[in-house]
Request: fold
Amino acid sequence: MAQTTYGVPQMCGYVGLSADCVTYTDISGYTQSVTPAEQTRITGEAYTFSGDTAIFKAGKRQPVAVTANIVYTEDDAGAWDRLDAINDAADCPSVVCFRWTPRGDTAGMQQHTVTGYLTGFQHPPMDASAGGPIIVTFTVMGPEIETTVKAS
Reply:
């Protein structure tokens, strides 16, 4: 197979967060990185007295976690404040949707969405020797990452 001449730059992406999985808030301007974990399948094996190898089978896909790093800010409409509100409503955690689109938020682009729960939320760390902005991490975990094409 010949080398591709097509590649997607990492600077044009869109990142959205939704507490109702309908209306997304653009948090691209706060997001430094999005890292989806590899989704794996449950596997199992059994050994018998005959043969030298296992009987090996694969089952269902395991849940997948998507971790993002965002710039910590203290503006009421910022990404951290929105996530803090979702995290504080932990009596009965509600579903949250997290979406990223590597080529931007325009029609025809592939978008990747995890629908699940906020399973990790970091409060701001402090480091007197650091010169850059504070970066915090959050994780959304769900049954799968759904890849669709943005309609409009």
About this structure: The chain is about 5% helix and 45% strand. The helical segments are 79-88. The domain at 14-149 is CATH 2.40.30 (Elongation Factor Tu (Ef-tu); domain 3). Residues 18 and 24 are 5 Å apart (CA to CA).
